[in-house]
Amino acid sequence: CQHCAECDDGLENYCNHMVGTYNAPTPDAPGHTLGGYSQQIVVHERYVLRVRHPEAQLAAVAPLLCAGITTYSPLRHWKVGPGHKIGVVGIGGLGHMGIKIAHAMGAHVVAFTTSESKRAAAKALGAHEVVVSRNADEMAAHAQSLDFILNTVAAPHDLDAFFALLKRDGTMTLVGAPASPHPAPAVFNLIMKRRSLAGSMIGGIPETQEMLDFCAEHDIVADIEMIRADEINAAYERMLKGDVKYRFVIDCASLAT
Question: Of 4, 188, 214, 231, which sits most exposed with the smallest number of CB within 10 A?
């Protein structure tokens, strides 16, 4: 809206009057927004971003504007950096970016996955340690050792198992959005160590530009698979099965064919 406290602070993503990209109501015809796949758009200069990556990387840069900023913003807000030991829960579209960015920020990164098969992949992304969260011994080995946890999992799960890994005053921030609620955490897991549970949603334009510059400086892009527009349905089915590493990107040139 450009006139509320959130917009004044450069945090347009928290504006109460934000118009969504996909099918959000609008006062003008056709009465709703039409998504993000136009070949050309008119945009207010306030919302233009500069991409410094080489042109050859543009497809892999595209997910930075969602997964990149969604993970960068909480890592930046909670001041993750050298000397911090942080956890990234989930190694998917969000989690793989969280690992890359937290590593570049200088933190010691512990990746958490339910799948033994993702251990090597997490190490390749930059995780210093990988924990299979179904392994009680591996989880116990990290009890009260983490300063911060970025939880990217978009399915309901037991948050208490991860609260036990936080130090006193540690924070777990949720960026994954499950379709149904997580089981309620035990209050004493928060009270006894003054731990915090928080949430975060994408980022404002100034922070998004900061993220793009940071990723260009550190040669960070998303791991992608390019698809044609006529492959979207098949890609969606694969996504539901977790069969993507780690983001599909639509070749918009194929929309015209």
Answer: 188
Residue 114: phi and psi, rounded to 5, are -85, -5
Does one domain contain both 44 and 124? no
160 and 244: one domain? no
pTM of structure: 0.95
Cβ-proximal residues to 61 (8 Å cutoff; 6+ apart), any chain: 51, 53, 212, 215, 221, 222
Q: Can you say how many angstroms the Cα of residue 108 is from the centroid of all Cα atoms in its chain?
A: 18
Residue 152: CB atoms within 10 Å: 26
* One-letter amino acid of 48: V
CA–CA separation, 165 and 86 (whole Å): 10
For residues 55 and 170, membership in a common domain is answered with no
Asked if residue 215 is part of any domain, the answer here is no
Averages of pLDDT over runs of 10 residues in the chain (257 residues) are 95 94 91 84 91 97 97 98 98 97 98 94 97 97 98 96 98 96 94 97 97 98 96 95 93 85
Is 114 in the same domain as 140? yes
Q: Is residue 130 part of a domain?
A: yes
Identify the domain containing residue 117 by its residue range. 68-199
How far is CA 233 from its chain centroid? 23
Q: Is residue 209 part of a domain?
A: no
Is residue 220 within 8 A of residue 61, CB to CB? The reply is no
> 116, 132 in Cβ contact below 8 A?
yes
Residue with tokens 């450069």: 10
Tokens, residue 211: 């993220």
